[in-house]
Amino acid sequence: MTEFNFDEHPHRRFNPLRGEWVLVSPHRTKRPWLGQVEKLAPDDRPAYDPKCYLCPGNQRMGSDMNPKYDATLVFTNDFSALLTDTPEMTGAPDDLLRVEPTRGECRVICFSPRHDLTLAEMAVPDIRKVVDVWATQTAELGEKYRWVQVFENKGAAMGCSNPHPHGQIWASNFVPNEIAAEEREQKNYQQENGSVLLLDYAKRELAAQERVVVSNAHWVAVVPFWAVWPYEILLLPTRQVQRLPELTDAERTSLSEILQAMLIRYDNLFETSFPYSMGWHATPNGAGDQPHWQLHAHFYPPLLRSATVKKFMVGYEMLAEAQRDLTAEQAAARLRELPAKHYRHG
Ligand code: H2U
Ligand code: ZN
Fold first, then answer.
1. Catalytic entry in 9, 11, 115, 166
2. Is the pLDDT of residue 71 over 80?
């Protein structure tokens, strides 16, 4: 009888953070590709683009002008998905067609005045300024809102409208689905095991090393055992941290360093500015300390086998369960072995 082998045989892996399974089909990595090939956006942007609504001194699509900022810029999204003044609902609630009014605020963060950079190509002290903005915005909006979602949607492949390096913050008076699932699973895990799910997980990964992409004194970046996206990364501190503003000065600097190190590898993988959606998950606000929580960031990049071939979450995945071919171990090994120097910087 053949023995079960992770690199060869179909299996399911459990994502304990969401309480969901993912189907892994490693035997399929050899199949021929006949699908769609994405067009490559030319990567020759100027440092300043007079038509860019995020560049310093330029007019935005709303009526405002950007100041001539020289590091980061935060402004209220001119097309906010959440509003501060939504009225309360009146009338009897419907048990089947449930509704709740929502309140919140949306902001945009420019990471740099330079139109031609991305976090991957920024210097560590400049990335550090972005980390500090993430933390101060989380603290400020966290005073008023249950949840503050800090995220970046990068690249045309992700539907990002503008290559100028930027992220967003959406603060809401409710805890959204993804965070609610992590809240439930981390709480259950602590009740059952008496320890912190993601700290136990980080220890396991640091001991095994096979899914670690990079690590430093305070942080570890892994392709999680249960990854869905081909080169998905989970980034987390190795001590328990509940929210971004708690990070110490040293932890913020080493976060900037590990971000740079992993994002350079992302770009080097297919020698392209690597598209992704990333965002921070942390203890929701309003209920004080939640000892089952561990701060972390998810990076969900869509590219699969080249700068032009991405993974689609369709078919079986929409109707049944997420599925991947390449294993998390194979993806981590590929990323780990890439040069630490950005391909555009020779
Ligand atoms: P993307 O990161 O998905 O491209 O979105 C950019 C955000 O910037 C988007 O939410 C906002 C859009 O509403 N925006 C402004 O607030 N002002 C502008 O002048 C243009 C875009
Ligand atoms: Zn710009």
1. 166
2. yes
Residue with tokens 């095991």: 193
Q: Given CA atoms 151, 157, 162, 163 in this order, what sign does their dihedral have?
A: positive
Mutation probe of ligand 1 site: the residue of 49, 53, 150, 161 with most atoms within 8 A of C-beta: 161
Q: What percent of the chain has pLDDT over 90?
A: 89
Centre of ligand 2 to C-alpha 302, Å, is 24
pLDDT, tens digit (0-9, with 9 covering 90-100), for 328-338: 999 999 999 99
Expressed in angstroms and rounded, the spacing between residue 55 Cα and the centre of ligand 2 is 4
Q: Which of 108, 149, 151, 158 to mutate to test the pocket of ligand 1 (most atoms within 8 A of CB)?
A: 108
The CA-based angle 234-43-48, given to 5 degrees, is 100
3-class DSSP state for residue 81? coil
Which residue blocks in the chain are alpha helix, DSSP H? Answer: 124-142, 177-193, 197-208, 249-269, 316-319, 328-336
* 166 noted as active-site residue: yes
Q: How does pLDDT run across 184-225, given as a tens digit for each residue? A: 999 999 999 999 999 999 999 999 999 999 999 999 999 999
Stretch (H or E) spanning 154: strand 147-154
